[in-house]
Design a protein that fits this description.
Length: 401
């Protein structure tokens, strides 16, 4: 993974213009938090735009604080929400826009050099494609964009000189560890996983776990969709695919190791047997900040590891209670439309579970069976965007049955 010198040079201008997509979410809020912190470190960003789906109150509050040029509410839930947002920002110069196309437009603007891609789900794909095509510096949290369409995003980024910097903590750890060696010297990468709230539950009990139990992640505070993905370990499956695209690695070179303390965020085993890891407290602001300031490091705002309080670091192999991992490896091996289908089926089943419509154990069962059905009939090996969107729509309809 190369950081293009052209983009890096563009980033020497201060303040750098940034668009935060999904600003009202867990990563978006932390990103704004990091920017406020970086301003105190002589590393100011100019917030050009903020985008959210429907949370107009939080968007208004963030817009009043960060004074962007544009605030996008892409999918207002009620007819009055957009006018409420406009009313809240009426005394400012902030332009209020709506619709998914406005989010992609924001990612493309000339005065935006950095795009924080922190929308959740496949909804984040269009702005990531727009940012890649416009040659932006992309701080990528939205792993689903790569799972669905890594085969399009990565070549576009290469062609137009865009730089993709991982925000996902495991991938940030790999990216940082890679500064100790060359990509061709990697033997394997080891993605660590906390194991989620059900790490030590018997398989049978897990089948009927409640939404509250599944949302009770032991180490990380995150948005609801990824928290459920962490409980099924589908998050790790998505991360396996994300690592495949970011670091150009085959399935055989990507391992998963359960590490309940979440101190080691991931590691690389190089061909000579040396293992380089990145460690820290479980706070996404470290990875977000590095994605914004690489190759430089600045004073961070996360709490530090206190070695005197760490009693142990333990490791376990993931076992058969978490079949989601197989989906990740299958998606890498098959490629094509398989990622779009697995992701869409999981997004739908994940939401059905959170809405109380299906049992926990059904999420991965549904996702696996829809992927299997697609691989038997309808799979496209070299997809265009239209094929990926059609596969996504088909899988959503199947999962909603
Ligand atoms: P949240 O659910 O907390 O936030 C999602 C954000 O996306 C919200 O701002 C939401 O707006 C916005 N959004 C949803 N759909 C659209 C749309 N169509 N257009 C514009 N904005 C939209 O999610 P997280 O912050 O937890 O996760 C974001 C991404 O980061 C995911 O891909 C996740 O996998 C990844 N990630 C998250 C981590 C974490 O610690 N949270 C760690 C590693 C990766 P609204 O509030 O209005 O609904
Ligand atoms: Mg992660």
């Amino acid at each position: 993974m190369n950081v293009k010198s052209s983009t890096a040079a563009a980033l020497q201008h201060h303040p750098r213009g940034i668009a935060v997509l999904g600003s009202t979410g867990s990563i978006g809020t932390n990103t704004l938090n990091v920017m406020a912190h970086l301003a105190t470190q002589g590393q100011p960003f100019e917030v050009i735009g903020l985008a959210a789906a429907s949370n107009w109150q939080k968007l208004a509050q963030q817009a009043l604080e960060f004074k962007p040029k544009v605030a996008v509410l892409s999918q207002p839930a009620a007819a009055t929400d957009l006018s409420e947002l406009k009313k809240a920002l009426a005394h400012t110069d902030i332009q209020v826009l709506t619709g998914d196309a406005a989010v992609a437009e924001l990612a493309r603007r000339d005065d935006v050099s950095v795009v924080a891609a922190s929308v959740v789900g496949a909804a984040g794909l269009a702005p990531v494609l727009a940012a890649a095509e416009a040659g932006k510096w992309i701080a990528l949290a939205n792993k689903e964009a790569l799972v669905v369409a890594g085969c399009l995003v990565m070549p576009l980024a290469e062609k137009y000189g865009a730089t993709i910097l991982p925000v996902d903590s495991e991938h940030s750890a790999i990216f940082q560890s890679l500064r100790s060696g060359e990509s061709r010297e990697i033997d394997r990468i080891i993605l660590t996983a906390s194991g989620g709230p059900f790490r030590s539950w018997p398989a049978e009990k897990m089948q009927t776990a409640t939404v509250d139990e599944a949302l009770n992640h032991p180490n990380w505070r995150m948005g609801p969709k990824i928290t459920i993905d962490s409980a099924t370990l589908m998050n790790k499956a998505l991360e396996i695919v994300e690592a495949h695209w970011l670091f150009n690695l085959p399935a055989e070179s990507i391992d998963v190791l359960v590490h309940p303390q979440s101190i080691i965020h991931s590691m690389i085993e190089f061909v000579d047997g040396s293992i380089i890891a990145q460690l820290g407290t479980p706070d996404m602001r470290t990875a977000i900040q590095y994605a914004l300031t690489h190759p430089q490091r600045h004073q961070g705002c996360s709490s530090r590891l206190d070695w005197t309080k760490i009693k142990e670091m333990t490791f376990e192999q993931p076992d058969g209670r978490f079949p989601a991992l197989d989906i990740g490896y299958e998606v890498i091996r098959r490629g094509g439309t398989s990622g779009a289908v697995a992701n869409a089926a999981n997004e739908t089943a994940n939401a059905l579970f959170r809405d109380g419509k299906i049992k926990f154990g059904k999420i991965i069962e549904i996702t696996s069976s829809i992927l299997k059905k697609h691989l038997a009939n309808g799979f496209v090996a070299r997809p265009q965007l239209a094929d990926l969107l059609a596969a996504d729509a088909w899988a959503r309809a199947e999962a909603a049955l």
